[in-house]
Description:
heterodimer, A: mainly beta, six-stranded mixed sheet, globular, B: mainly beta, seven-stranded mixed sheet, 11 strands
Amino acid sequence: GQQLNQSPQSMFIQEGEDVSMNCTSSSIFNTWLWYKQDPGEGPVLLIALYKAGELTSNGRLTAQFGITRKDSFLNISASIPSDVGIYFCAGQFNNDMRFGAGTRLTVKP
Amino acid sequence: DAGVIQSPRHEVTEMGQEVTLRCKPISGHDYLFWYRQTMMRGLELLIYFNNNVPIDDSGMPEDRFSAKMPNASFSTLKIQPSEPRDSAVYFCAIRISSSPLHFGNGTRLTVT
Lengths: 109, 112
């Protein structure tokens, strides 16, 4: 179920700007995941983080697994129009996976 | 995505009718999950299977919902009778061992 606090709920930015979003939880997770969902499609995995403190990049995306294991952030640098969509964080502990409510990103050309 | 094929993509039905959603996952997975997505509640886990055996169905809203996995390459989620509040997008997702979830493209259900 939805027990992660994800913020912001929505963002309206200009093309070329950087974006930052984060998730926090009262529970510890051993995996943090970031997904992107385009309209009419399922969530697609962007980045997976497996160790506290881990910082991982995937192109213009960078995500970190918080040291406390209770938070994670995702940064997108130099946004482009195709970055539009809903970004979800997910925390996983064994078979228990929780999702954030999502951050809806709008990029104005 | 070819890894998890869901059908139908869209379903419109009248209240009281039976609805069956289908999922065909790629081979090699250990786990299969059914999620429901709504604006109000986001992504909610309904049930998951491990090696075709239901493990946790505590997320199934009520007895009107049932799910089966007769073999490793097929699963169904059935709602009978359907109600307007069941309108949502239903996702099937798989996992191989401890890998992240891989979602299908969902079935958008509208119950009028």
